[in-house]
Amino acid sequence: MSEKVPCAILGSGNIGTDLMYKLQRSDVLEPRVMVGIDPDSDGLRRARAEGLDVSADGVRHIVEHPEDCRFVFEATSAGAHRANAPLIAQAGLQSIDLTPAKLGPGVVPPVNLDEHWDAPDVNLITCGGQATIPMVAAVAAVTPVPYAEIVATIASRSAGPGTRQSIDEFTRTTARGIEQIGGAQRGKAIIILNPAEPPLLMRDTVFCRIDPDADRDAIRASVHAMRERVAEYVPGYRLRGEPDFDGDRVAIFLEVEGAADYLPSYAGNLDIMTAAAVRVGEELARLRARVEATA
Amino acid sequence: MADLTLVDSTLRDGSHAKRHRLRVEDVVAVATALDRAGVPVIEISHGDGLGGASFTYGFSLRDELDLIAAAVEAVARARIAVLLLPGIGVKDDLARARELGASVARVATHCTEADIAPSHLGLARELGYEAVGFLMMAHMNTPAGLLEQARIMEDAGAQVVYVTDSAGALMPEEVTARVSALREGLSPQTAVGFHGHENLSLAIANTLAAVDAGATWVDGCTCGMGAGAGNAPTEVLVAVLGKRGVDTGADTFAMLDVADDVVRPLMDRPQVVDRASLLLGYAGVYSSFLLHAQRAGERFGVPAQDILVEAGRRKAVGGQEDLLIDIAAELAGARA
Fold it and tell me: Model ipTM?
């Protein structure tokens, strides 16, 4: 691919702005448009300074110029995305949805992206899902996982009003992702907000029930390999120690430090969403190019 | 008419001390006895609230909904309460418990995170529960800060808001300051509650301070059976408040029988203020961490108190039990 694939960002808040900086570093994608509501917002100001086409006209601005982008990163709210999605699809563009709207299939880059290369709308599930589903999948690739449970601990300051108002939505959506994408028969998700100052890094613990006689070396190897794959796009994605085996369960301890593009580094929960979104866009672009080349 | 509302949480906070291994017959025996003794509200749930059964907090021997159903069946007068921590349990859990006959819903958050609870408190009201907000680890917020959080719960429909000393870390004067702030700042229709732990041997003294400052909902656990060094022993609370002329609705002599004849034989260990549990109060650490730290300590060959002190240093909040294994592994590694 010689030319970068043009993209639009809908939403000029923290997430949209962080996403812009990450897209600028991409070898595959190029952020060309940012659409917000408030022309004086910090996000739009920064986008203008970076030379993006900036608008406060909402989704209309994007769908009226579909030649300017192939992917639309939705970084607004679930309600806004529900309204925008049909217009984006009609314009022949693909939505990469960071909101909890959940209109299309959920995707976790190293696990299930190739199944959904042509979906008009893919979504990023939840931050806890992006951090933990790869590990559930890593264990499930070695041995059956009848039950997986994750605990995501995030800094209070990194939990916005949307997350707070619909915390059940987080646990339900993440649990479903653990099952449908991670491959556990049954999933459970727990989220804890910690107000400590200075704010703590995002921590995630993944428990998988496994056969006590499962091949532990193979599980360890699978977990480490998966960490490397996620760390390709989230450099601050780390294992805290080795997987801990105790009878019929393995526990995997993770820490996610953000890249601090726009968001603070402790907000690994937000960083893993924007980083995964960029990865999804890059992979979808590659998969499309491959399909188009062989067509 | 009793002067205040006494809640016995032996079958909820005590679930921690039993590592969530309560049997249906235990629940029926305790609930029946507490009901006969006149305790008006009996709380039953996994120690970490509805939906708490997990690797992180420990699986329950019996589904808590079976326990709730059995207790509802067993009591004649007492109301059955349930606990829910948003982020761990979900609204559906509240709905299911209500269908089984639970009628008091206590919705708990860390003392700075009340804004994750409004939808749960709102649903509790809609379902016909008496809705109670539970501000945990109350030592980690100022009286003014706690009032701000209590107002969020009140606005969401809470009819009672608790100062919950989950770490058993508050001094009596700190309880007075927090309960007074809520009593003065909330609407007169909203009751203020207090839930104490015994880690610094202050559960009863702190409850008295709370009552003096205007708390009208108070928690105990029979024989103190609860997380950490346990809670204010319900039988002691009934006796002490009785001497003060405060009517709890419960009979002191009947409570002594419940304690010695029904609850004490169920206990896995006596509730004592030992090294590790005292440190919970001293370092301000969530009481439920105690047994998890002991188990992690045994597995990794690290003293439980070292794990707890480190958890305190990292400002861990309720629900972060998974961190204890992580800390134990790290301490073990550092020593290797």
Answer: 0.96
